[in-house]
Structures are given as structure tokens and as C-alpha cells.
Amino acid sequence: MEKMFTLLRNIEVKRSHTGVWKRWSSSLSSIFTYPLTETTKLSVPDGSSKQQKRMVYCIISYRGTGYAGLQYNNAAKTIQEEIFRAFCKIGAISRLNADSPRKVHVRSAARTDKGVHAIVNVLGLKLLDHAGSFQPWVSLVNKQLPESIRVWKVERTLNSFSPHKACGSRLYEYWLPAFAIATPSPFSLDSLLFTKHFQSPHASQESILEKIQKTHSEENAASSPFRISSSKLECLKEACSLFQGTHSFHNYTTQKPFGDSSARRYMLRVFIDSIHYDKYNRQWLKLTFHGQSFMKHQIRKMVSILIYLTRSYPFANPSQIIPATFQNPVRLHIPKAPPETLLLAEPIFHSYQNRCEQFNYKPLEWSSFKDNMTHFANHYLRTPMLENFVFTDSYTKFFMLQKQDRLLHEFALAIQQASSKIEK
Q: Do 207 and 293 share a domain, yes or no?
């Protein structure tokens, strides 16, 4: 009982001391005033002593060549850093916050890897209020940016805005050169790998080589440069459709073990959007990936599987291999397809528009800038990406025989494991 009274008395003393401290500190604040330093004084258009930071959304386009991706990285040059520094230079971000993007809560709707481009992406960040309008910052910031990075719109939005969370789905496009899925020439090392991994009691090495020779001669006799055959096109379409729906994509990213719930992703559509011919008469396939969200390297690894399956037609069966990649507990070493021809087409914000209307904010949209964006995409992204395309080091590494050998071997094991589970 005495201990309880002692405890209550101590609490009461602390309360009284706290009250005394508050009264003393408030009296000190009335006596001493702390003048603003030079770094905290802000020159503002309306003549007020201080500008308020407001959460805005920022519509951007960029070419990813020469940058280590979108997201800010202290050790490398990134798109976010370039845009952040440009806003700092024009005074849209105060000098107190100019040392780190975290201080102004920079976020993006979709991350892009090294060398990946974006026709439309959305940033969320806090900028200083420019007399109630943020659009004047656009022309100023574009003068500070290289021509390969454009800011189209800056608009006030909800304080709670997080573009990554508000984005309902993302749309990507991958431009696949048709020659990448050509059948290897007979008796090449690539063909020998096919005979090694696809032989079975029903298919001898001789019969596989005969099919390779027949397919290769048909592809090369039809036209030059290479054109995808109708049978291979159907194989590619089938393989694309097998990605649709909710699956475990643990084999299509890094550091995600089998059974990790965060590796489950929903693909709305994966399809061949169109076939394009560049000025050199080379054929390109535009693959479109529409998913709720994507993990690191996921699309590039999905493209990799599509290339290997179509290239090894008619030996590899997409309906066996792709489901096996979702169900196999042992990690498959799927190489990443080259990043040079991957584009973020746009993030989609359908549900967020309703919240904007509910709180009387302007909707998050960029329809009035579509023509400018199309011109930018054609001039800075698609045209140089396709017409200046060469067989780069990334493609050379992608088609390394060691990688093909290991992947084809793992395909066979994954199919065996999947079939054994079905039999059980």
C-alpha cells in the first residue's frame, strides 16, 4: 500500500514539474526571438514571409538511356535526381530541403530500371506554392532539364497522395526485334543445345535436326530480313495469354522465394499489340503488358521466356513450361531481356479520380498533352530506339550459350516436377 502511495505522489510531482516547465518555456519564448537566417528567408511572388509546401502530382516523360533507372540513388545518376535538382534550381524547393528528395516526399507511380524509358509517368512531391498556381513551374523546370526529360503538368492534389498506392495498374510495351526469335542455323551450337535438351523417346537427335533445318530454310527463303512465320506468331500469342491472371512470379524477379505471397501478381492482359517495320525494313513486334503491379526485372524476364519458347518452336511447349515456372519451388535462372526497347506506356488511375472529385480537386489526367507526348515518344523514344538499334552487348550476353544451356536444362526439370505432381 505504501509503495502505491509513493508511486502516485511521484506521478503528481512530475505533472506539477511538467506544468512549471511549460509555463517557464513559454515565458522564455516571449522574451527571446530568433531571427530567420539567410538560408530560411524565401523570396515569394505574393510578398508573404513564407511559402507553404503543397503536395502536387507531376506528369513526366523521359528517355532512360544513360541513367541508372528512375528512383533516386546516391551512388548513381537517376531520372528522379535530375528532376529534383531542376526544381531546386528554379526555387520550387527551398534550400533547406534541397539536400534530399525524401524531405519533399518524392514518389513515383511506377519504377523503371536502368535504361528503361517512359512515355508517361507520375511523380508525387511537395513544391512551394507559386501564388496559388503550380503550372508556372513547368516552363521554368523544362529549361533546366535535358530535352530527353520533359515535365508536362504540375497540379495540386490531395495531401495523402502516394502515386504508387493510388495507381490501379501499369501499362508497359516491349519492342521485340523479330530476328531475336529466329530459328538457329542447323549444326550451330544453339541447334546442338536444342538436340541435347529436347530429345525424347518420341524425338531423336536426327529428327530434331531435320526439323531445325526445315524451319530455318523456310524462314530464310521467305524474305530478307527475317519475318516471323504465322506458326511462330501463334506460338507467341499462346505463350503471352498464359501469363494472364493471378500467378506466383517468384521466378521472374530477385530475392522472392517460392510461396512468398508478395510475389503473386495479377496480369490483366499480355498480348501482341502490333507489328512494325522500321526504315531498314526490319520487323518489330510490339508486346503489351498490362498488370496491376510489377516487380523488379519482371517484364524483362517474361520477355526472355517468350523469346526462348518462340525461338525453340516447335520443340518447346508453352502450355507446359510457363505454368511450371509459377509452380516450381526451385529457382529458375531466367536471364533478363535487354532493357533498351522497354517502355512504360502509362500508369492508370481510375479509382483515384473518384477521390479527387469527392474532395473537389482536379482529376489526375494528361489528355490535353497527348499530342506533345506522342511527338516526344516518337522523336526521343521509339524512332531512335528502333532505327538506331544495333546488336548490343546486352543482346550478346542474353544469347550466351551457358545461359541457354542452363535455362533449357531447368525447363526440363521444372516440367518433370510439374508432371510428377499431377500424377500423384
A: yes
